[in-house]
Every structure is written in C-alpha cells, then in structure tokens.
Here is the input.
Amino acid sequence: MTLTPNRPAWKTLLAFAIIYFVWGSTFLAIRIGVHEVPPFLFAAMRFLAAGAALFGWTLARGEASPTWKQWRSAAILAILIFVCDYGLLFWAEQRVPSGLAAVMMATIPAFMALAEIVILRTQKLTLRLAIALLIGLAGVAVLTSRSLNLSGTPIDHTAALAMLIGAVTWAIASALSRKLPLPASKAVSSGSQMLLGGIFLTIVAASLGEFRGFHPTKVSAHAWLALAYLIVPGSIIGFTAYVWLLHHESPTKVGTYAYVNPVVAVLLGYFAANEPLGLRTLIGTLCVLASVLVITTTRKPA
Here is the structure.
C-alpha cells in the first residue's frame, strides 16, 4: 500500500505515543486479569467487545463493509495476531511476570526484520543484522537459562516458547498486512480483524473448556477494570493507531514500540505490582533491547 507523504506530524507522534505507552501498560492489565479469568476467555472478552464496538461504529458512520476477499484477509491476520500472538501471550502471563513478558515480546522487531527480508524483500540480511539477532537470542537465553548463576528465577521454558511463537506470528501478520487486500479505512480494518479475533478466541476458549467453572460474579472489580482498560485504550485506540502506522511507516520502524513497551512494563510491574527486578532481568532486557535498537536503526539498501 502506498505511503502517505503529506500527513500531519502530530498524528504520527500521537500514534507512536499510544503504541509505546498504552501498550506498555497493558502487560500488567493482562497479568491482573488472567489470575482470575481463563486466559483465552479473557482475551476473547477483550477483543470481541473491542472489535464489535469498533466495527459497529464504522457501520454506523456509513463506511463500507469489507468485501469477501477483505474478510478472508482479515481472518488470516486475526488468526495470526489475536489467536496465536495474543492468545499465547495471555496464556503465558499466568506463568511469567508482566515485565518479563514484555521483554520476551520485544523480540518482535527481530522477526519483523526477517519478515521484511523473506516476505517483503525490502531488507537484506547483513552481518550487522545477523549480530543483532544473535544478541537478541542471547538475551532470551539469559532470561530462560537455569544454568546461569544469576539472581532471579528463569522464565518458564514453555511460556517462553509460546511467546516467541506469538512474536513470529505477529511479525508475519505485519508483513502480510501490506500485501493482502484490506479495507481502505483503518477503523474498518482494525474492527474487522479484532471482531474475528474475538470470535476465534471464543471458539478456542470453548474447545479448551474454559467456560466450565467460570463465574463472572466471582471476578473482582480489579480484573473487570483491567478488562475495560484493555478493551478501550489497549485495543480500540491502540490497535487502530498500530494499523494506521503500518500503512504510513515501515514495519521495522513501527516495531520500535517493542523496546519502549518493555521499559514501561518492567518499571510498572516493579513499582505497581512488586515484580522482581534482578540481575537476570536487567541483563536479558539490555541484550534484547540492544538487539532491537540495532535492527531498527539499520538502514535499508537503496
């Protein structure tokens, strides 16, 4: 899709601020919610409500509904983003502190760079990129290794693998979103993808038996407030800003949110939720963020 050259700078800055700071705080909200609500069900509630609200709003404004081809594209992206990435993230946050979950998801730009190399073919694999990828992998190893004598408990291996799979599927979806036929309206595109994502997550939650034994009346006010925060700022506003940026900036540049989100999430988790901040977390985080910084500042070949 053609990038728009003459757009107000404040729109770009605001969109980046939203995906930087709002999304950075959503990791703690997820952590709060999945301690009381089954993970895929909690994710389904988030995106079904947000998707229905956003998509319904676009129809009320008189915007055109997606065509069959566009619905098919939205379904592909919904599976990759909402079921695979978010579903696995919600599941993993039952086992991993919110700050460390954000650090693991900070590997997304690395996979986005690979997606640009393999899918979009707008980037080449250079020695600089290869070293950056190795540094990022070293950071993941520090966070998950049980053999290193560092303070802090290593991340559960299964949860770490789940989040890495989610990061890969998000990167693939980001690259595909620039090739697949999607609605011109960013709100329609966001709403349709979220709505389908919520539907698919509901099906997954039901197939896993998450509805059995779930009683809404037993869920605390804190968890409901966390869900409301995830629905409005975290989904409706945040995902719309993300999709808008993908159509105006390169996927790798948009992916810079991934090294701001962990800083916000780690600090918020430490000060607001008493999550540990040991040497393991610091070293692993620095490695991952250094990797992302190198990748996102690497110039594309002319």
Notes: The chain has twelve helices and no strands. The longest helix spans residues 9-34.
